[in-house]
Amino acid sequence: MGSKKRSAWQKQKAEFAASLGGMDDLFASENARSQRHDEERAAALRHKACERKNRYASRYEAELTAADGKELADKFDALCAAHGIEVHVVPLAAWGGQTVSSTRIRAALAQGDVPAANAMLAQPYAVSLPVRHGRGNGQKWGFPTINQVYPGGLLVPREGVYVSCVTLADGTAHPGATGLGSRPTVNDDARDVTCETFLPGFSGDVYGETARLVLCRYLWPTRKFETVDALRQMVQAAAAALENWQGT
Predict the structure, then answer these.
(1) How far is Cα 177 from Cα 241, in angstroms, rounded to an integer?
(2) Across-strand partners of 196?
(3) Per residue in 109-158, pLDDT tens?
(4) pTM (predicted TM-score)
(5) Please, how many CA atoms are within 13 Å of residue 245, restricted to the half-sphere of its CB?
(6) How far apart, in Å, are the Cα atoms of 242 and each of 36, 163, 247?
């Protein structure tokens, strides 16, 4: 091959290679545009799905709000009737002119308003807990108590002294005076909440047995006494309040 032909061929080869390089740039540009298009389309689809979800959620919430219970019950009745299912609508329980709820019951217990809590529960507030060994101070000071501990996670009513009733494992029921709280006279840890109940006239070994405690009436808050005699007088006052309550 002559030098002129070789030079012409090399020039054509160079031009062809240059054209291929341009094609690479073109393909890269097209790929970038396609990727942006896919991302934009995916974002648009996500936005549309989110709008649809919010629209349905708002519509459902509006239906619940507008229905005020009755319309929703009617819809449910019609839906079930189409399948031969009978629907019986039970009215919401109410007390004191307001709907009964767990929030109201918890609030009543937190305030020591046992009658209100019992009315909304439609039964006495009660806990069944094992009887545990305590420090023995009550026995030593002349008013033995049965000791119970509220487990973690269980709602503890307002701390203080209550008129109560305890049903033991043998089925016998005994009126009592219950101190619910951290026992500030003999304990410095406010987190150590116990439930100690004095049962006037009762004697027996019930350790390890499960006793059912019913709080009947809130008497007064827990407080720290400077002397054991002052604490004993408080227990005696609680026992007297218990007798008065039993007489009513």
Answers:
(1) 9
(2) 147, 179
(3) 999 999 999 999 999 999 999 998 876 665 656 667 888 988 878 888 99
(4) 0.61
(5) 18
(6) 80, 6, 9
